[in-house]
Amino acid sequence: MVEQIVFFIFTILVLGGGIGVITTKNIYYAALFFSASLSGMAGYFVLLNAGFLAAVQIVVYIGAIAILILFAIMLSRRMMTTKEQQTNRQTWLAAIASFLLFVALLGVVMQVTWPLSAEKHADNVLVLLGMSFLGSYVIPFEVVSVLLLVSLIGAIILARDIQTEEGRE
Amino acid sequence: MVPTPYYLLLAAVLFAIGAGGVMLRRNTLVILMCVELMMNAVNLTFVAFSHELNDMTGQVFVFMIMTVAAVEAAIGLAILVELYRLTRSVNIDEFNSLKG
Question: How far is A34 from chain B (nearest CA, A)?
Answer without folding.
Answer: 7
